[in-house]
Amino acid sequence: MLQLHIAPSTAAMVPHILLEDIGVPYERVWVDPQSGGHKTPAYLALNPNGLIPVLVDGDLVLYETAAICLHLSDTHPQAGLMPAMGTRDRAHAYKWLMWLTNTLQATLIVYFYPERWADSGHTDVAAEVRRNAQARVGPLLDQLDAELARHGGPWFMGEHFTLLDAYVFTLCRWTRHFSSAPARKRPHLGPYLQRMLARPSMQRVMANEGLSEPYV
Ligand SMILES: N[C@@H](CCC(=O)N[C@@H](CS)C(=O)NCC(=O)O)C(=O)O
Fold first, then answer.
1. Which residues form ligand 1's pocket by a CB distance below 6 Å?
2. Distance of CA 151 to CAs 4, 57, 99, 158, 187, Å?
3. ∠ CA(195), CA(67), CA(149), 5° rounding?
4. pTM for the complete prediction?
5. Which of 190, 195, 196, 155 is nearest to 176 (CA)?
6. How confident is the model at residue 123 (pLDDT cuts 50, 70, 90)?
7. Ligand 1 nearest atom to the CA of residue 10, by list position
8. Domains (ranges, CATH) in the chain?
9. Can you tell me which atom of ligand 1 is nearest the CA of 68?
10. Is 90 exceeded by the pLDDT of residue 180?
């Protein structure tokens, strides 16, 4: 059975949403980052970066959220999680997936761990890094909003739900405590996030991860 190594409200939410959407049996293996569960020798053997998530599929051990999503899409083609191979939509889906992981997610990680960009004890520098990371995320969220405005939705790629929806939702959720302009405040992202939340698979994800309001 598929195994997803997961912690609540982390990048693991992306494949968690997809697994609930696909509807195959899988096991959630909870990792506790507070107690360093992602830095134990056993976990590092799965992901030498000590980062969550990891997917185990038989003898395949896979880390990197975007790679996990593409693998789930490839192995469950009936779920239609990516546009058809060789199409313009497929090319744009690759573009957005790379951008989400290497630009929006990477900038959000700076926001969540600003102390890693400051010398030890320099809390003022860390606070400045955090402020600047938040400011840099704003225009990135604007790009997501503009894309929804361009085609009118209902999903991020237009008419069809894809793996990008799980990624966009998860990263937008991470902005919910922003002091200025969280994702939900944008005119197209706001209703989109509510549409996502209304999906039964999303309700199961929120319950499985033990999350409560505000979800986004
Ligand atoms: N590029 C990795 C990043 C994963 C990542 O940063 N995971 C976070 C949780 S959202 C984590 O494990 N953080 C623990 C740490 O940085 O020590 C991926 O997309 O899988």
1. 10-11, 33, 38, 51-52, 63-65, 101, 109
2. 33, 36, 19, 6, 14
3. 30
4. 0.98
5. 190
6. very high
7. 10
8. 2-79 (3.40.30.10), 88-206 (1.20.1050.10)
9. 20
10. no
